[in-house]
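Case study B.
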Amino acid sequence: MTPEEMAKTEFSLAKIRELTSARIGIGRTGGSLKTAEILDFDLAHAKARDAVGADFIATEFMTQLQSALKTTCPKLSWLTLQSAASDKPTYLKRPDYGRRLHESSVHELNNHQKHDDLIIIISDGLSPRAVQSHSIAVLRSWMPMLYASQIKIGPIMVVPYARVGIVDPIGQILRPKSALILLGERPGLATPESLGAYFTFNPQTGRTDADRNCISNIHAFGIGPEQVALQLHSLLTLSLRKKMGGVKLSELMAEGSASTRLE
Amino acid sequence: MPVFKSRVGSNLYHFNSIQELMAQATQARSGDELAGVAAPSCEARLAARRALADLPLKSFLEYPLIDPESDEVSRLIQHQHRPENFEPISHLTVGEFRDWLLDYSTSGSVLKSIAWGITPEMAAAVSKLMRNQDLILVASKIRNITQFRNTIGLPGRLSVRIQPNHPTDHPQAVAASILEGLIYGCGDAVIGINPATDSLENTIQLLQLMDQLIEKLEIPTQSCVLAHITTQIQAMKRGAPVDLVFQSIAGTELANKSFGINLNMLEDARGMALELKRGTVGDHVMYFETGQGSCLSANANHGLDQQTCEARAYAVARQFEPLLVNTVVGFIGPEYLYDGRQILRAGLEDHFCGKLLGLPMGCDICYTNHAEADQNDSDNLLGLLGMAGCNFIMGVPGADDIMLGYQSTSFHDSHFLRQTLGLKPAPEFEAWLRNHAIINSIGELVGSDNSGLMALETNRFSGWKGLLS
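Model:
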C-alpha cells in the first residue's frame, strides 16, 4: 500500500468512527473480545448502572426550567406533581405506580384550568441526567414555534418517578387536546443520557402505545433539540388539524411525505 | 370451571381456576408479582405444581384460559388444534407428559408429529414442571427448519442476525456495522434493522441499502426493517425490496391491539410479501418477535401469568409460517424479569415452548441497565441455548445496541458458541463465507487481518470499502 492509499484508508475509518459509536473495529483474540474491550465495555456498564441510581430533585430541576424559559415564555404556569411511586426501587419494580398520580396531585390538578391545546410533562424516568441535559433545550427550541402557531399551552408539569402512561390520568383531569411527555430513557452504554418524547392526542384513561407517537434517542450523538422541536411541531399541528394520534397519525404522515416526494 | 385442592403436610391449598393454578405453579418472577398472580409462598408454588402435575392435558381443550368469544387468539388456538395429532398424548396428565417428553423413545420426529396436537397452554403447563435441564434436553431433540435464501435451524448449525442499529439510522454507519458483522461470519439469520424513526421514507431507504449490499456481495441471506407492519405494507405498496415482514406479537387479542395489529393484518402482509417472490430456496417470509410481559404491560393479560401469555403468542406465530421467531427475553426490564436468573429461566422456557409448538426459535439474549444482570448472565444463557439447539441469536457490535439502549449478544459471542459446540452457519451462508475466505473449514476466522472493519484496510477486503461511500 502506498502512503497516499494508507492515508486515504485511515481517513475513511476515522470518518466512520465519527459517524457511529457502535463497537466496530474492536479487534479480536481468536474469536473472542480483547481485554481492553472487555474493560471498556464494563466501564460503560458501570456508568449506566450509576446513572439509573442517580438522584433527581424535582424542585431544583423546576427552578432551572423556569429560569431557562421564563423570559421567553412569561405566561406559562408550572406544577410539580407526584406519581404513586414513592422511591426508586418501587418505581423500578412497579410501572403501574409510575402510571398513576398520587392522591395529593389529583386534588391539585382538579383546581387547575382545563381544556388547553397542549400540556407538557417532564419526568426523570430511567435517566435523571437525560432530563437535566436535554429537556430544557427541546422546550427552548419548540416554544417559539408554539407561540407562532398560537397554541394554547397548559401547565408545564414536573413529575418524578413517572412512566409514559401518567399522561392519561393527567389528561383525564385537565382535558387538553394533546399531551407531550419528555422522560429519561433506559441508559445505554454509548450514552447514559438519552431522552424520549411521547405525544398523545386526546389523552385519557385507556390509551395504549398504539395511540402514541414517539421520538426517541434525543441526546448528544442522536437527534438534536432543534430537529426534535420541528418534528414535534409537525406532529402536533397535524394531530390537532386531523384530530387523531398514534399509528393512524403516523400512517397519515407517511402518506403525506410519500406524496410530497412524488410531486 | 374446576377448582383444585392440594395438601402439603397439614396445609391445604385451594386454586379456584386453571389460570390460578398455572400462575402459581410458575417459577418466581417479578412480572407475575406485579400482576398479582404469583404464588404467595414457596410451598404454595410447590402445591400448585403438584396439582398441575395431576391435571389431564385434555382439560386445556375443555376450559380455554381466555374466553374465545372475546379473544381472537383463543379462537385461533381452538382452530389450530388437530385431534389426530393430539391422540398419542391425549390420555396423559401434565406430569406424565413431562415424563413422556424425556423418554428415549420420544424422538425429534415424534415430537414434530404432535406439534399441532399441543396447544400453547399445554406447552406452558408442562414447562412449569420442568427443570432447566429438561427444557434444554427436550428442545435439543427438535429441529424446526425454515428457508428463504438459506436454510436455518439444521442440526449442528447456529445462525446470527446482524442488528446494525443506529440512533439516527445513518446509512453509512448502518452499513459499517453490517460489514463488520459479515467479516465476523454473521448475518445468516437476517440483517435486521430496528429503525430509530418509524417513517415510510426512512424504512424504504434502509431496505434499499440492505438490498443493494446483499445483491452486490451476492450474500445468501435476507433483510428486514423492523418498522411497524403498517409501515412495511406501505413500503411494499411502493415497490420497496421487502424480504421479510416483521412484527412484534403477543398472546392476547387486546395486547396485539395495543401493538396496533390483528390477525387479519398479519395475513394480509404475509400475502403481499409472498407475492414479491423474493426468496430463492424457500418462502418463509415472516419474522416475529415476542417476549414475556408484553401482555401485562398492555393491561391485556386476562389474569394469566406472563409465561402462559407468551406461549399463546406462539399460536399467532405458527399460523403464518415464519422464517424466524425471536423471544427478546430481557429487554422488557426488571419489573417483569428481575435479574439474570429470571431472564435465564424465561429464555429456556420460551425456547422450549416455541420449539415444541413447531417454531424456528431464536433468542435475543439480553438485559437492560436497570436489571440486575451483566455479561456473565448473558454468557450463561448463551451456552445453555446453544446446547438446546437454538436456531439463531443476535449479533450486535460489541453486544452494545446504541439505538435501543440495551445489551444483547455480539459477533464475538457467536464465535464462543460456534467454537465450544462445533456449530456452523447456515450451509449456503457458510459456503459464501468460505468463498470469501472469511472462515476456514473448521469455522475459525481466517488470517490475523480479518478483524471486522479493520480488515477494510487490507487488500483482501479493500473492494468492500466502496460499499461505505
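Chain B has two domains: 4-141, 146-454. The remaining cases will be described in the next quarterly update.
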